[in-house]
Amino acid sequence: MQCMEVWGGNEPTSRNVELTGLQAWVYSLPYPDCKKGGDVYYLSSCASGRISRMLIADVAGHGDLVDSIARGLRDLMRRNINYIKQGRLFRALNEQFGELRSAGRFATAIVITFFAPRSKLEISTAGHPLPVLYRQDKQTWEPLASVIDLTQLKAPLQNIPLGVLDGALYGEVSLRLSPGDLLLLFSDGLLEYPTGPSELLGHEGLLSVLRRLPPEPRETLIPRLLEAITGDSEPRNRRDDLTVVLLSPTGRGIPMKNNLLAPWRLVSTLWNRDS
């Protein structure tokens, strides 16, 4: 991705995205017979490339009804593209969905900000499933709760779905990644995929499948995971939109060119906004 770029939407995709110090693989498939889904995904890169941000929002509804919401989320991602802290973005997200409450619109969401110089992630959720983590030194997949303290994500009136409560609070937790580590994000369409007549995959089922799969090559991990779960290259029995994002730090630093051009990119953005 280029600096000051926001990429994503709510259409089907299967794409490899390279950010500064971070590799991302994004897969999204709408609800059956819908060209566009209720899952909205965005990635952004700041003026220097040192701040990368990922958003997955699971919006109530499908198809064209979500399009205007998806465009609004893109605008919010762009406005917050250069802020390291993501609290400002979450408050704006909640306000936007609060305005849509009377129409029955709400969303779960997860936002992750990656600060390349420290290889550090900040994670905030709004009623969204938490990611799972692969540590290369341990050679296994683990739930996020087993490696970091999630207290900040469980306080009263915190991290409830967007648009439900004005002034809701959204905490964040920090996580450092090393090259070779993997973080898997997903919408609840993955956890709720049917694996039997009355059974759903769930968190434990997901971890069980992941632990049986070799993590390499990581560029094929998502399709291999989906095929192991569904028995097919395309999850045809899905009952909801399905989005999966795999993140892996590369350890590569910020190019000097990015640092030198960052002020000019900021000035250009402000000029275009005002003109």
Describe the fold and architecture.
- By secondary structure, the protein is an alpha+beta fold.
- It has a single domain, classed as PPM-type phosphatase domain (Phosphatase 2c, domain 1, 4-Layer Sandwich).
- Helices cover 25% and strands 29% of the residues.
- A 6-stranded antiparallel beta sheet has the order 1-4-5-6-7-10, with helices on one face.
- A hairpin with a 2-residue loop joins strand 12 and strand 13.
- About 3% of the residues have low confidence.
- How far apart are the termini? 25 Å
Corresponding CATH superfamily = PPM-type phosphatase domain
* Helix-strand category: alpha+beta
Number of helices: 6
What CATH architecture do you see?
A: 4-Layer Sandwich
Q: Which spans of ≥5 residues are poorly predicted at pLDDT below 50? A: 260-267
**Beta-strand content:** 25-35%
Helix-strand string: EEEEEHHEEEEEEHEEHHEH
Global mean pLDDT: 85
Give, in spatial order, the strands making up the sheet with the most strands. Answer: 1-4-5-6-7-10
- The number of domains is 1
Broad CATH class: Alpha Beta
**What's the alpha carbon Rg, rounded to whole Å?**
18 Å
- What fold name goes in the CATH topology slot? Phosphatase 2c, domain 1
Shape: globular
* Helix share, percent: 25-40%
Task: Please tally the β strands and state the result.
Answer: 14
Major β-sheet, in short? Answer: 6 strands, antiparallel
